[in-house]
Design a protein that fits this description.
With 281 residues, this protein is α/β, with parallel strands linked by helices. 42% of the residues lie in helices and 15% in strands. The chain is globular and about 45 Å long.
C-alpha cells in the first residue's frame, strides 16, 4: 500500500509518523510554544531528526471551545513555516486546514498534503484544489459544525457513523477527480466521540480497514482528553505514556499513519511494533 502526495509516493510497508506543529497561541496541548516562525521551524527540524515522515502544520486550533480565525490570519501563521520547512528539508509537509483558500495558498507554498478535519463538509472546494495539484488528502470523521464538533450527542453506533461519513467524503473527493491513492482516512479520535467510543475505534480498527481496503487509516490519539480521563492525567503534555500505548495498539491493529506530538518516542515504539508484527504467524 502507498499514499500519493503531489511530490512523492509514500510507501506504507510500516506505520509512518506525522509530527504536529501547531502555529497557534491556543492549541490544547502546546499552544503558544511554536507560534513564531523560528520556534515552529526549529520544532519541525527536531521532529525530522527524531524520525518524522511528515510534518503537519496547522494555524487554527480545533480544541474544545476554540474559535475560528480569519483566512488571512491562518495564512499568515502557516505559510512562512511551510516555506521554511520545504526550503530546508526534503520531508513532505501537510497543511491542517478546513478552509480552501488556506489550502490553496499552502499548497502553492509547498505543502504536499491537505489535512481536512471536516472531511470536505465545511468547504468542498478543498477537493478541487487537491485534485488540481495532485495533493495527498486526509479526510477526517467529525460531527457538527466547527463550533459544535466537541459537543455533539454521542452516535448510537460509532462504526456505522464513521463508515457512513467516510463513504460520503470519499464520494465528494472522487467527484472532484481525486484518485484512491491520494486519500487517507482519519477516524477522528476525540471529535464528537465518547471516551468509550475512542477506545472502541482504536481497539477495532480492523472493521474499518476491511470496509475501506483501498485507503490507509490515520489515527491521531496523541495527548487527547480520553487518555487523560482514563489515566487521571489532566495536563495534556503529561500524557506521553498513554499516547504511546494508543499509538502502539493502533499500529498493531493496522493504522498506517500516526499523528503525534512526541516523535522520537513514537518512532521507537513503532519500530518495536513492526518487529513483533513481522513475526506474526
Amino acid at each position: 500500500m502507498f499514499w500519493q502526495t503531489s511530490r512523492r509516493k509514500l510507501v506504507l510497508d510500516r506505520p509512518i509518523v506525522m509530527g504536529i506543529v501547531n502555529v497557534t497561541p491556543d492549541s490544547f496541548s502546546d499552544g503558544g510554544r511554536f507560534d513564531s516562525f523560528d520556534s515552529a521551524v526549529k520544532r519541525a527540524e527536531e521532529m525530522i531528526v527524531e524520525g518524522a515522515d511528515i510534518i503537519d502544520v496547522g494555524g487554527e486550533s480545533t480544541r474544545p471551545g476554540s474559535e475560528r480565525v480569519s483566512v488571512q490570519d491562518e495564512i499568515d501563521r502557516v505559510v512562512p513555516v511551510i516555506e521554511g520547512v520545504v526550503k530546508r528539508f526534503d520531508v513532505p509537509v501537510s497543511i491542517d486546514t478546513s478552509k480552501s483558500k488556506v489550502a490553496e495558498v499552502a499548497v502553492a507554498a509547498g505543502a504536499e498534503v491537505i489535512n481536512d478535519i471536516s472531511g470536505l463538509r465545511f468547504d468542498k472546494r478543498i477537493a478541487e484544489i487537491a485534485a488540481k495539484n495532485n495533493s495527498g488528502l486526509v479526510l477526517m470523521h467529525s460531527r457538527g459544525e466547527f463550533e459544535t464538533m466537541h459537543s455533539q450527542a454521542a452516535a448510537a453506533d460509532i462504526f456505522t457513523d464513521v463508515a457512513a461519513d467516510f463513504r460520503r467524503s470519499i464520494a465528494v473527493a472522487k467527484a472532484s477527480g481525486i484518485k484512491d491513492e491520494q486519500i487517507l482516512l482519519d477516524v477522528g479520535i476525540g471529535f464528537g466521540k465518547t471516551q468509550e467510543q475512542n477506545v472502541e475505534l482504536i481497539a477495532n480498527l480492523d472493521r474499518l480497514i476491511a470496509e475501506f481496503p483501498d485507503h490507509p487509516l490515520l489515527v491521531g490519539a496523541s495527548r487527547k482528553s480520553f487518555i487523560g480521563k482514563l489515566l487521571g492525567v489532566p495536563i495534556a503534555s503529561d500524557r506521553l505514556h498513554g499516547s504511546l500505548a494508543a499509538a502502539a495498539i493502533a499500529a498493531w491493529n493496522g493504522a498506517k499513519v500516526l499523528r503525534v506530538h512526541d516523535v522520537r518516542e513514537t518512532v521507537e515504539v513503532l519500530k518495536m511494533v513492526s518487529a513483533f508484527s513481522s513475526k506474526r504467524i
